[in-house]
Amino acid sequence: MTRNKIFNFCIAVLMVAIVSSCGGGGGDDTPDLTPEEQRILDLAGSTGTTWVATSVTFEDAPAVGFDNFSITLRGSATSQTYTSNSGDPVFRASGSWAFNNNNISQLIFDSNNNNIFQISNLNTASTPATVVLTVNFTSSGGVAFGTDGVYVFNLQAQ
């Protein structure tokens, strides 16, 4: 009889160990995202996020020509692309984006290291999510006079 009790006790301990190691205790086998992967997810979602301007300023005054501005960011660890509406001269109609030298608080568009966009006030917990992009924009070749200066894009996810 004692032998059966010991055997049953050992089987019970073994079952508890197996269930615990298989995640039965609420564990998660999904690897944690890197800070860069999390920031891509925050900005681009899993299938792309369209950010619509609630306001755009140029040199602390309302910017002209950005009334219908929006930018859709798509991204993964290997590819980041965008499309924009009413973004000229700051944004092309489409292109690529990346973090500035792996700095997840700064973006560059179309490999243009002259215009570094600072990310601030990213709030993905709010509904809708919000973010502010600020750039001291410098045009390159042939762009209309008077477009260089500080732009602030206050955006919300659509």
Characterization of this structure:
The protein has 158 residues and is of the alpha+beta class. It has one domain (35-157). It is 19% helix and 39% strand. It contains two helices and nine strands, in the order H-H-E-E-E-E-E-E-E-E-E. The chain has helices spanning 2-21, 35-44; strands spanning 49-58, 61-62, 70-75, 80-85, 94-100, 103-109, 117-123, 130-137, 149-157. It has an eight-stranded antiparallel β-barrel with strand order 1-3-4-5-6-7-8-9. Strand 7 (117-123) and strand 8 form a beta hairpin.
Estimate nothing, just give the exact number of structural domains.
1
Query: C-alpha Rg, in Å?
Result: 25 Å
Main sheet characteristics: 8 strands, antiparallel, barrel
What is the number of helices?
A: 2
- Structural class by secondary-structure content: alpha+beta
Secondary-structure element string: HHEEEEEEEEE
Give average pLDDT, whole number. Answer: 87
